[in-house]
Design brief:
With 124 residues, this protein is of the alpha+beta class. The chain contains six helices and three strands; from the N terminus they run βαββααααα. The chain has helices spanning 8-17, 57-71, 78-85, 88-95, 100-105, 108-119; strands spanning 2-3, 23-30, 42-49.
């Protein structure tokens, strides 16, 4: 993932410093052939999965969004996060600079409620 305004090494160091389970980030530079940044040199990170069982993908997404907001507040468009998150409270927490690990814990009550409802439908 990347964009023309991302400094690859800076983002990789920031994300690796967060010690996100199951992944590491390698700085990369590339020029996409299509999409929003077609033919523009971009900096970014390659996401390397190191332990698929240790990866919490939603947590990683929150960490990436938080990193982009923290490092590139003038370029990263927080409004676009609403379309990805579909959770207004989480998007606002990221925008307010809440620690990404705390954002995910806000979901725990809803997850437990879902699991209780789901349990009666599980066949085995």
């Amino acid at each position: 993932m990347g964009a023309p305004w991302i400094h690859a090494t800076e983002l990789a160091e920031y994300l690796n410093g967060r010690r996100i389970g199951g992944v590491r980030f390698v700085p990369v530079e590339f020029t996409p052939a299509a999409d929003a940044y077609a033919q523009k040199k971009c900096g970014g990170v390659n996401i390397i999965m190191t332990d698929r069982n240790g990866l919490d993908a939603p947590e990683m997404g929150i960490e990436i969004a938080s990193a982009l907001h923290a490092l590139y507040p003038d370029q990263y468009e927080m409004k676009k996060l609403d379309n990805l998150m579909l959770n207004d409270a989480s998007a606002k927490a990221i925008g307010a600079g809440v620690d990404p690990r705390r954002v995910g814990t806000e979901w725990n009550d809803a997850i437990e409620t879902f699991r209780a409802v789901r349990a009666k439908y599980l066949l085995y």
